[in-house]
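Action item from last meeting closed. Structure (359 res):
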């Protein structure tokens, strides 16, 4: 109980907090909700990770105030309502977290759906691309496939599987090529990890999407595809649900990337100088290597023919199918170079140390 109180108190922020500060709060507190309060602790508005994603898609920057996207009329539960009533309200409104307020509108608590029900199992698969040679990671990958490189005491691939398992995933397909037998030896059929694991063997590299062409049997519902070297706190279930809400064939998780030009930029029309920008910041979205796909996308792949995921998304659009981006703000690291591996070990090692220190 004390831990829950501490969590919701840490979720209280100012309406003038920036998007960057709000994202840091959401990722640190881990309840997918930040509560904007005034100086007296009265609830002014609330912001979810979905609000943040929509704001980023609208073009807001990390320095914009959160009040621009926060909901000024959030659902609340009055102080004194019993657990049964709180559960009914949350179920009726299909929400996972609701603040509790007193008669003066001050936040005094928080109800989380996870406290009522364990994460439900579902039939969605996760396909993990684990066949790359990891040439940029040499010498670490000379005798070890990159997804098996240890992070905080266990292989990266195991972290991915365990996180997905905690979200209700139980069926995994691993696509193998380089040193694939080492992965098979570690995971076998997945039973020792409490999941079911099957394998796709690529005789030649087929690309992120091409490996899907040889899935047998084919998944019957939407499924997640992820690279085997992407460490993230994303909720894979939300990616599936986002695809459903958008009625899309393909969802690509994307990250906001900010790049500061190290030079002063001269704006011109012809040879006429029209202005200057001192070290301007450019914003773009980059592919995060995580996808949610409809089973129908497999009809757009030729068996055993190389295809990367961007090419598959192009084919889907050309065929008139909808493809959408899922802006993610969660911690994310593409472990592509040795310094990325060091960063992943330092970050996850620190988190595990903190967890061991909790009382």
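Sequence:
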């Amino acid at each position: 109980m004390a831990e829950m109180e501490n969590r919701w108190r840490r979720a209280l922020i100012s309406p003038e907090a920036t998007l960057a500060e709000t994202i840091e709060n959401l990722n640190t507190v881990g309840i997918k909700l930040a509560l904007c309060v005034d100086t007296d602790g009265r609830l002014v508005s609330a912001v979810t990770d979905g609000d943040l994603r929509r704001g980023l898609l609208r073009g807001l920057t990390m320095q914009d105030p959160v009040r621009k996207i926060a909901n000024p009329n959030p659902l609340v539960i009055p102080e004194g309502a019993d657990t049964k009533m709180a559960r009914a309200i949350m179920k009726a409104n299909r929400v996972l977290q609701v603040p509790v307020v007193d008669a003066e509108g001050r936040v005094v608590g928080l109800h989380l759906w996870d406290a009522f029900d364990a994460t439900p199992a579902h039939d969605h698969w996760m396909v993990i691309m684990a066949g790359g040679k990891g040439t940029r990671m040499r010498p670490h990958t000379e005798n070890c496939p990159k997804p098996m490189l240890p992070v905080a005491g266990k292989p990266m691939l195991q972290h991915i599987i365990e996180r997905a398992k905690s979200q209700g995933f139980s069926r995994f397909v691993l696509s193998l090529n380089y040193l694939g037998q080492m992965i098979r030896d570690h995971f076998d059929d997945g039973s020792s990890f409490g999941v079911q694991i099957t394998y796709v063997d690529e005789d030649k590299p087929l690309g992120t999407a091409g490996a899907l062409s040889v899935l047998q049997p084919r998944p019957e519902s939407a499924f997640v595809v992820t690279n085997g070297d992407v460490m993230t706190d994303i909720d894979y279930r939300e990616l599936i649900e986002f695809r459903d809400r958008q009625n899309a064939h393909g969802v690509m998780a994307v990250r906001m990337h900010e790049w500061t030009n190290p030079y002063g930029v001269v704006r011109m029309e012809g040879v006429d100088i029209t202005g200057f920008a001192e070290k301007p910041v450019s914003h773009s979205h980059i592919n995060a290597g995580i996808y949610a796909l409809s089973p129908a996308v497999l009809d757009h792949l030729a068996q055993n023919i190389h295809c990367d995921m961007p090419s598959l998304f192009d084919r889907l659009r050309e065929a008139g199918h909808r493809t959408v981006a899922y802006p993610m703000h969660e911690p994310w690291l593409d472990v592509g170079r040795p310094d990325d591996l060091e960063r992943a070990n330092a970050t996850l090692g620190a988190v595990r140390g903190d967890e061991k220190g909790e009382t």
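Note appended to the action item: DSSP finds ten helices and 19 strands in the chain.
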